[in-house]
Specification:
Layout lengths: L1 E4 L6 H11 L3 E4 L10 E4 L5 H10 L3 H10 L4 E4 L1 H4 L4 E2 L12 E5 L13 E6 L1 E2 L15 E6 L1 E5 L5 E6 L3 E8 L2 E4 L7 H12 L2
Parallel strand pairs: 1-2, 1-3, 3-4, 4-13, 5-6
Antiparallel strand pairs: 6-10, 7-9, 8-11, 11-12, 12-13
Amino acid sequence: MIRIVDYGVGNIQAFMNMFRRLDIPAERAKSAGELSDATHLILPGVGAFDHAMQLLNASGMRPTLEQLVLEKQMPVLGVCVGMQMLATGSDEGELPGLNWIPGRVRSFANTPESAKMPMPHMGWNDLAVRDGAALFQRGFDARPLFYFLHSYYFDASDKAHVAVTANYGFDFDAVVSRDHIHGVQCHPEKSHHWGGQLLKNFAES
């Protein structure tokens, strides 16, 4: 069972609708107890980094999530701010992140190559998929299109964890993978058949 972590922010229903169309069992989890039957986890997120971390910390689910992901090595997919929460920390806030994939979340506006670009980075962008990218092994063209909406980006400490890049004034880390832990800055739940294929590949991982 895929469990979508519902800690107060994120496009929960959009994920539910996508998995329903894919005929893949998925339910939301609003408590630690509802994570008991999970085989895969989706960590969504929208808005500000600190607000999302505060809500996750207050949800009572974080210890169980860390046990499932770090000890039992359950596959997890962080999406948008959910991806950023996988990092060590963010320039957007002061709270520490989960540090499941070491890195820092940085601002496009404070990065010279993207500082003059419109903010936020919004709309469709193609992806440069690296060889061996776990979530893109099946069903993708060379440069699939995904929908983005963000002003901050993940900067992985170890570039070996970068599976996919996209360009917004420079090539930024758009998808990161560390074994069973994955993060995508784009929105698969809004990215039509490309997003459906990514979620299907994750569900089968």
